[in-house]
Design a protein that fits this description.
Layout lengths: L2 E12 L2 E13 L4 E5 L6 H8 L7 E6 L4 E3 L5 H11 E4 L11 H11 L4 H14 L15 H13 L5 E5 L7 H17 L3 E5 L11 E6 L2 E2 L1
Parallel strand pairs: 3-8, 3-9, 6-7, 7-8
Antiparallel strand pairs: 1-2, 1-4, 4-5, 9-10
Helix pairs in contact: 3-4, 3-5, 4-5, 5-6
Bound molecules: adenosine-5'-diphosphate and magnesium ion.
GO molecular function: ATP binding; ATP hydrolysis activity; transmembrane transporter activity
Protein name: Putative ABC transport system ATP-binding protein
GO cellular component, one term: plasma membrane
């Protein structure tokens, strides 16, 4: 489903003053495609993703999926935002943020469980996705015994386990070497396309961008 960010502004309180982290951004990400968001540190990339994913309410503007009603607005109740986040959005962050005590398979099953899937379905789907990210042999390993690249692959599989409409990926390769980083970007881009998800990818590394459909640049919170 297409992702529409319409006139989004995000203002943070900053002592006596305010800081405009996102400044009137309008962006359309078609389903099945990846739009890469580039910009210097502090330009508002993570803030824009936080609004697009309902982690932070916009100060003004809206986020809409497909041609439905807006899902995130300045007045969206937190419980509504959480439900949309859980059922329709997948996130991959800079750090994989895995649960140390759970195996790769269990990380995925936990999310499926939260999304209300039946146990048999959960396991089959989780194994299928671990296979898709090349981790089938590591399904029963905990994060502590996996490499950085493998952990990020688990995080990617977990983000896709609920078949999200929208995939939001924030600098997933910053802890990886270049070759592994490129592989990860290609992997997540192709999985998003297969699932027909709209994907917004934040990156600082232009050389990993061979597989994306569109590039947009952010500077001081504005698209340039
Ligand atoms: P990027 O991801 O491009 O590095 P961010 O979205 O993290 O940029 O930050 C944009 C601006 O907003 C920066 O000036 C940053 O200091 C500020 N900022 C980010 N998060 C917060 C917050 N929770 N509270 C106040 N200011 C913030
Ligand atoms: Mg950031």
């Amino acid at each position: 489903m297409d992702l529409h960010i319409d006139g989004v502004t995000l203002v943070y309180p900053d002592g006596e003053q305010t800081l405009t982290a996102v400044d009137d951004v309008t962006l359309h990400v078609p389903s099945g495609e990846t739009t890469a968001l580039l910009g210097p540190s502090g330009s508002g990339k993570s803030s824009l993703l936080a609004v697009a994913g309902g982690l932070t309410r916009p100060t003004s503007g809206t986020v809409t999926f497909g041609d439905g009603e807006p899902v995130f607005t300045p007045t969206t109740p937190p419980d509504d935002a959480t439900r949309v986040r859980l059922t329709r959005i997948g996130f991959v962050f800079q750090q994989p943020q895995l649960v140390p005590s759970l195996t790769a398979l269990e990380q995925l099953e936990l999310l499926s469980h939260l999304r209300g899937r039946k146990p048999a379905e959960r396991r089959a789907r989780a194994l299928e996705l671990l296979d898709a990210v090349g981790l089938a042999p590591w399904a029963h390993k905990r994060p502590g015994t996996l490499s950085g690249g493998q952990r990020q692959r688990v995080a990617i599989a977990r983000a896709l386990v609920g078949e999200p409409d929208v995939l939001l990926v924030d600098e997933p390769t910053s802890a990886l070497d270049h070759e592994r980083g490129t592989e990860i970007i290609e992997l997540v881009t192709s999985l998003a396309r297969e699932q027909d998800a709209a994907m917004l990818l934040v990156t600082h590394d232009e050389s990993t961008l061979g597989s994306v459909h569109r590039l947009v640049h952010l500077r001081d919170g504005r698209l340039v």
